[in-house]
């Protein structure tokens, strides 16, 4: 039996994969580790399958990555922000826009309080070139994060900046005029620029 895995070992494996062949080899290793977990692993099998899928994505094997992401979802273990986010992104990269939409609708109906779910899905749509869906997801996430802050849930304040920045970037790409949310970002950026050292 192999020894226990750490997060750093899994990350180092990705850093060392400098070609499609090395990414494929790393994916195979991660898949094998997921199949025979060590009780003291710091990384659960679902997370190992997600990382294996990311290696296949980097190697250009989008369909193979989707298979691994589906297995990660089926494992039923937590992979932040939500293991289905990785499957959604993989489906988009594989060209299964309808499958990605159905999964995104499932995530939306669950009304996740984690702003990173909205950010992940929104940026996946942005990378896929669907700026309207990206805008929709980033706006939903920003609205929920800011509403939570107003309701006294200050943990949501950590989610808001990333969502608002990504939303501003997408709105700019869409040619939309600045709105109140954009003003929050621009005023914060200008405040940082003129703040004394």
From TrEMBL:
Biased composition (Acidic residues): 1-12
Protein origin, superkingdom: Bacteria
Region (Disordered): 1-22
Stated name of the protein: Tetratricopeptide repeat-containing protein
Species this protein is from: Geodermatophilus pulveris
């Amino acid at each position: 039996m192999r020894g226990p895995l750490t997060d750093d070992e899994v990350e180092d494996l990705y850093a060392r994969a400098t070609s499609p062949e090395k990414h494929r080899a790393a994916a195979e290793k991660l898949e094998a580790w997921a199949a025979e977990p060590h009780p003291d692993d710091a990384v659960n099998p679902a997370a190992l399958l997600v990382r294996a899928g990311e290696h296949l994505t980097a190697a250009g094997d989008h369909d193979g990555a989707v298979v691994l992401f589906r297995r990660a979802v089926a494992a039923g273990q937590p992979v932040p922000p939500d293991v289905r986010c990785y499957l959604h992104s993989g489906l988009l990269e594989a060209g299964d826009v309808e499958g990605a939409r159905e999964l995104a609708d499932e995530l939306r109906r669950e009304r996740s309080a984690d702003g990173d779910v909205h950010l992940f899905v929104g940026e996946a749509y942005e990378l896929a070139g669907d700026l309207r869906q990206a805008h929709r997801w980033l706006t939903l996430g920003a609205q929920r994060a800011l509403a939570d802050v107003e309701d006294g849930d200050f943990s949501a304040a950590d989610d808001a900046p990333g969502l608002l920045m990504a939303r501003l970037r997408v709105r700019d790409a869409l040619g939309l005029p600045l709105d109140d949310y954009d003003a929050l970002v621009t005023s914060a950026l200008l405040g940082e620029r003129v703040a004394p050292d």
